[in-house]
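Inputs:
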Amino acid sequence: MAKVIVVTSGKGGVGKTTTSASFATGLAMKGNKTVVIDFDVGLRNLDLIMGCERRVVYDFVNVLNNEASLKQALIKDKQCENLFILPASQTRDKDALTEEGVERILNELKEDFDYIVCDSPAGIEKGALMALYFADEALIVTNPEVSSVRDSDRILGILSAKSKRAVDGDEPIKEHLVITRYSAKRVEMGEMLSIDDVKDLLSIPLIGVIPESESVLSASNSGVPVIHDIDSTSGQAYADVVDRFMGVNLPLRFLQAEKKGLLSRIFGN
Amino acid sequence: MQSEVEDPVIQDVAVDLKGSVFTLPVLQIHSSDVAAIEAELVERLSPALKFFKHAPIVIDLERVSHLEIDFHALTNLLSKQNLVSVGVRNGSKQQQAMAIAVGLAVVKGGPLQNVLGESPNRQALDNERETQTPSESRLETKQNGSSTTAASKVEAESPRVRDGQNDTQQLSQNKSTKIIYQPVRSGQQVYAKGGDLIVMAAVNPGAEIVADGNIHVYAPMKGRALAGVMGDQTARIFCQSMHAELIAIAGNFRVFEDNLPAEIRDKSVQAYLDGEQLIVSQL
């Protein structure tokens, strides 16, 4: 049975789309047939991060309005055979998203795919509500910073109250916490919330910590999900997230600030 | 009548509408078979015939709400036993309509209505119309029902008797306690109407927990807690780990920004009203 996973956060700019792109890529690299849907109608950027911007002809809203078939709108990823992208529309507004329409498309996708990753827009308006409504599991993307944590808390409340599973009284959505843009150094200096602070407040299981890294920005700019950059710490951390999601038990990495070696301490660096 | 009235203040009015509390026996019927009811009633009443002579009685339809009741025959048989049937309670809409048609009142009360938590005002009004009795004078055709049921009935009904006597106690005496096991998250509000609120998980910043009665939080309390919002000044708030943004009791509130005093910060505390002053002290 296909699983619908929403990647959401409440707050903008915390790394939802980066996470969606790398997470979906990671699932596909493990042999799962995966589609990632951009729910940010009007402000699409998943296709940019996935590097398929120029191949967008039809989009999510076209399919919702029966102006194109799913087959026409789905874009096959260049690197990953099992990965498809359903891009958002640049020109429509979020009112185009209807519950019936989204449900129809998800049901159609469920027939072909193992995982459906929904990249939620920021905020708690219609696009975000539609992205999470049909979810079976959720990745909550949070920066170790007070307002991001607060907004994630708010989104968790919405997941447990307004999602289809909550409304129907089914088993609740399985929630996973992804802490992004984590800087061990700044935590040590007391400038950033610690992992424990965030975990205590949100009280949901942590599935991964993605360290702040320059490679995320350069990956985004070049349109290649950072999980492909296996030399970068954030790429490795995303790979860990995917493994843990698939049930592999891995210890958390990249939580400590890099200690300078004895030589570099003596000679300066 | 007026000639008997001595008080000059009320001489110029013909009537006065007042409330009082009555104890009425309740006849709980388990069958729609009037003959069977009569036979059993005669047997049970005969030892106490004098006591129940001309006693007003309420017919409880809870167990027979799915059956068709011949109210005419039922009231006839009760009056033959020198009982004055005054009303019915519970029962279906249809039964209530039929009861009204034969001149009976529909009275509210009993465990079901109380659990559902009517507004205090409504309950007060109901009290003026009728008040049930706890189970001693209940005429059950089967007397030794399960003791837990009996206990819960007494518990559920006793506040009704009390609130007739003491309105200020009413809010805290209500038994509809609400228990929350999930974290209360930013932007969420939980309201325990007519009773206490117990939260077994964290109350996060930006969340609001509200109760007509007391509030207990057995986890970190980082949101806003408002107890006694209907005006109960005896309501209290208990927190296992106090880090609240705001504490309020019966409209008296304290806001805690970054100034949470060290002696209560993250400590087990209670909050209560001392006159107008809201006291938050370590437990």
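The first strand of chain A starts at residue 3 and ends at 8. Flag for discussion at group meeting.
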